[in-house]
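Model it.
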Amino acid sequence: MFLWIRNAFKLIEKMYKFTSRIREPACLKGKMKRIVVAYVVFTFGFYPMVDARTVSSGEVFYSESYIEVDPSNNGNELIVEAHGAVETPSAFIVGSYGGYFTEVTVAGTNALLQTGAQYVGNGGRGIDYSIENGGIVRCSSFSLSGDQTQGVVYSYLINHLSVSGQGSLLDVAGNLDLWSPESPGAPGLPFELPREIPCYAEVSGGGTVSVDSLSVANGSWFRLGEGGHLHVENDFNVSTDHFLFDGGTLSVGGKVSGRLKATRVSGGLTLAGTYALDEEMSACVVDGSLTISSEGVLEVAAGYAANGHLTVEGLAVLEGSLEVLFTGDAPVYGARYDLFDWNGGVSGQFVAITAPQLVGGLFLDSSELYTTGSVSVIPEPATLSLMGMASSGLFWARRIRRRRRFGRSVMPVEGLAMDRFFEEPVSSGPVFDDAAPRANLDGSLKRLLDGATGRFGAVGSRFVDALMAWDRWVDLPGRKRSLRHARKALASRGLALLDAVVASVAWDRIESRGRARRRKLAAIRKRAVSLLDAFLERVM
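Modeled.
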């Protein structure tokens, strides 16, 4: 009888211990003294509030079972101060359906919250989860969720996770998942349609988030601010435009999918999605190697004031695509964009390089992309060929004209090198005025030059200027006039000499021989004049 009663008491004791661990999971480590949250209720607005539970320095709040903050209550708060600790091997739940404005704060040096899986949101709204000034949170997985509402969406209903301050750490052994439900409602639509209340997480100011994998989906977003650190051990899945970089450091061990904008990447990066560099991200750095897989796209914005610039300290393995987007005014001939610094060398090439269609017969030259990391705007090959044909035609036209007038030589009068005509203009101004020579061209050449300069811009102008310079050296108007004057003077002297020779003949004998002799003498004189003109034109 006595043995039966003792066994019955032991069974009751075991059942009591088991149920107490589930219903009242809070106890002090070591002392085994239960801690019960004081339900002191007061009113704030429309919502009843519950006093905060604070775990102070040196206090350890431990539970074998799960810990739940805000079980259908409003305004509940858990505070873990410096050198305080809250521990459980089970789940840590923050917020529940119908709950509002729950807060969890882990702040101060060595303030510790160590749990199993953490679920933040769960239908609750306005949740604020903060890790500050050296606080540490460790968990097996972390899920932050948003909610839906009908009617007006207020920003203070957003669920928010923040890691900030030097030494603050969120260490997730598994996946960090940020998601919000997809909703048909949007601003301007009827209030009866459900609308999304998004969630977001941010790390900045010396804080660190270390996860095995990270996914950001639907309306949620993740912000890596100045001084923040994000380490993703495996794959990094980012939904389009929901991952924001404001100067932090990213480290990814796996592949990046989705759309990534990062100013600094620590360690190697394997890109299977899109890495976008806009003109505001002028100093992006990958400290290790960069591998762009066949599915990866490197997107760079190029502009006059600034453009995206990427420095890769390690080896760059290029197997994907490069997309260049121009911002601001349309590119012009001679524009050069410095996009990359390949400090660790380059292996492979981009399988495709795309850019917007350029006007004016221009295209993007990537011949120096894998050496200097820059691209430039030049005339397209067809344009260069057409310009070469035009310049060649003008040259040979001038050569034929010169050979007809001055002989076989086609060099300038003073033997000036042709290279001078293609030098860059000096700061002192143009050496010659090209308006006058162009005005003297015949109609067909003038139309050709006008079409060339209008189509090819600055390049065409430089070719035309060079040809005009050549034209002025070869057929200088002043030289033409001087040649004409010299020819007339020499002809006059020759005619005078011929007249003197003719005059020395006994005119009386010529007169005596009659009119036929005089006609023959005039023909001889005319023939001599034509031969003299031909000789002068040949030698001059």
